[in-house]
Amino acid sequence: MDKAWKALTGLGHETAETVEIGPYRIVERFDVALASLAVRRGQDKGFQAAAKKLGVPLPGAARHEAGKVFSAFWTTPEMWLVEADFATHEDIVSALKPGFAETASITEQTDAWVRFDVSGAGLVALFERLTNLDLATLPDGFASRTVIEHLGVYLIRHSATLVTLYGPRSSAQGLLHALEVTVKSVL
Amino acid sequence: MIINHPILGPRDAQEFVYLGDANLINRPDGMTAGIEVFHDYLYNRDNPAGEHRELWYHEQGDRSWLVVTRNTVTHEILKVEMARDVAKAQGRSK
């Protein structure tokens, strides 16, 4: 089986990377499946009911909400990105599609993004150099697209010491480099 | 410049892409309106020194189209609406 296909992480390795610099920890997450979920026109009622039944949270504008199996964050009116455990939901679309049926358009997004969980004390000092979102004034559970080093990135503030970033997977190395350089400039 | 997004609140203009005159929403029916009307739509723009309604795209945000009313002399932003609300108010289906 030495010629078997091997899945590579966003950074191009077989296992996810963790970088620790000073008090900061940048963890590449390779264990989350992603799908975009959009309401089809005029299907709002059925859509809401299906989401409730499946346990897919539908947070309001610029919010992230964790659920038991599925978590989700708002991306634009009537559209969310849904997260689930990769081990059990590698084919996340087939887990969602039967429930939502014709009320939603669902697209797998897992391999389009690279995810970094950035943790540590002093995230405000780090992110005020990286993005124009003011992390200090944002509430926990805030989620929004923003720009980091010219890359379109989703930023989720879970707490004062934990932020999740989803960046374009094809720029995974570039995004990590930006994080590393900025961390070093803060220290 | 800060644009006060109707849903997301004040956001830096860096996140937005400018398209142009908001009249682009009102595309005439090319099959029935006639060539003159369509030519006007395609090529002719007003260039007012003062209030101007324009389309902005929140590319590095929620990817929504906005209609921004801006004073081209002072750069003051007077009003920001979701483009789809503007289109709906005009009786459009999407």
Short description:
The complex is a heterodimer of chains A (187) and B (94). A six-stranded antiparallel beta sheet of chain A has the order 1-2-8-11-10-9, with helices on one face. Helix content of chain A is 25%, strand content 36%.
Q: Would you write up a description of this structure?
A:
The complex is a heterodimer of chains A (187) and B (94). Chain A is α+β, with helices and mostly antiparallel strands and 187 residues long. Chain A folds into 2 domains: 18-30 and 112-186, Gyrase A, domain 2, CATH 3.30.1360.120; 32-108, Alpha-Beta Plaits (2-Layer Sandwich). Helix content of chain A is 25%, strand content 36%. Chain A is built from 5 helices and 11 strands. In chain A, helix 4 (123-130) packs across helix 5. The longest helix of chain A is centred in the C-terminal third of the chain and has 15 residues, at 172-186. Chain A starts with 17 loop residues before the first strand and ends with a helix. Chain B has 94 residues and is of the alpha+beta class. Chain B has a single domain (2-89), classed as Folate-binding superfamily (Folate-binding fold, 2-Layer Sandwich), CATH 3.30.2270. Chain B is built from 2 helices and 6 strands. Chain B has helices at residues 35-43, 83-89; strands at 2-5, 9-12, 17-21, 51-57, 65-71, 77-82. Chain B has a 4-stranded antiparallel sheet with strand order 3-4-5-6. Chain B has a two-stranded antiparallel sheet with strand order 1-2. Chain B is globular. In chain B, 15% of the residues are buried. The mean pLDDT of chain B is 92. Classes of the chains: A alpha+beta (187), B alpha+beta (94). The A-B interface holds A 41, 61-62, 74-77, 132, 144-147, 152 and B 7-8, 12, 14-15, 59-64, 82, 94.
